[in-house]
Amino acid sequence: MKIINVAIDGPAGAGKSTISRKAAAELGYIYIDTGALYRTVGLNALRKGADLQSDEAIIATITDDLKVELKFIDGEQRMFLSDEDVSDKIRTPEASMAASRVSAVPKVREFLFDLQKKLARENNCVMDGRDIGTVVLPDADVKIFLTASPEARAERRFKELTEKGMDVKYEDVLADMIKRDYDDSHRAIAPLKQADDAILCDTSNIGLEESIALIIKTIKDNI
User: What is the pTM of this model?
Assistant: First the structure.
C-alpha cells in the first residue's frame, strides 16, 4: 500500500499546527509538527545558556547524549527532551525565537532531518514546517503553502498567549512575527519559501473552522 505524505509549509503563526492536526485526524494520518522538533532543540540551547547568535555555541548543545523524541500519546503528538515532556514549555515566545535561530544552523537540521524522513517513510502523514515541500519531502503527494498577513497572524498568536495567562503586548508579538518572517525567509540554509508546485492557501480573512475545511478539501482534491 502506497504511503501518502502531505507537506504544509508557511510562516510562523499561520495556524499550521492546529490546521494540520485537524486535517490529519480527518484523513486518518499521523500529524508531524516539525516546528516542535526545532523548538525542543531551541529550548535545550536556552537551558544551556548558549549564545544564540553563535553557530558554534548552538552546535555545542547538540551533543551525543541529547535525546529529542516525538511520541504519540492518545493520538496527540508530544515532545520529549531527555525524557521530559516539554510540549507546553516549547510554546513560549522565547522558545519560538530560539527555534528560528537554531533552525538556521546546518548541524541542527542534519540532527533532525533523518528523524523527519523516517517518520514520513513509515506513515501516512501530514507534516508541517518551513521547508517540508522544498527540502524534507520534495516528492510529497500534496504540497500546501499556508499563510496569512503578519497582522492577522500576530492577532491570533496574541490571543493564544493571553489566554494562557502570559503578559504580552500585541505590538511586541507583531514585531517578533515580522522579525521571524525575515529570519526564516533569509537564512542561508533551507529558507522559508513556497515550493513551485505548492498550492497557496491564504487564511487572512477567514476563521479557523473555515481554514481547516479549506485545507482538508485541498488535500482530498489533490490526493
Answer: 0.81
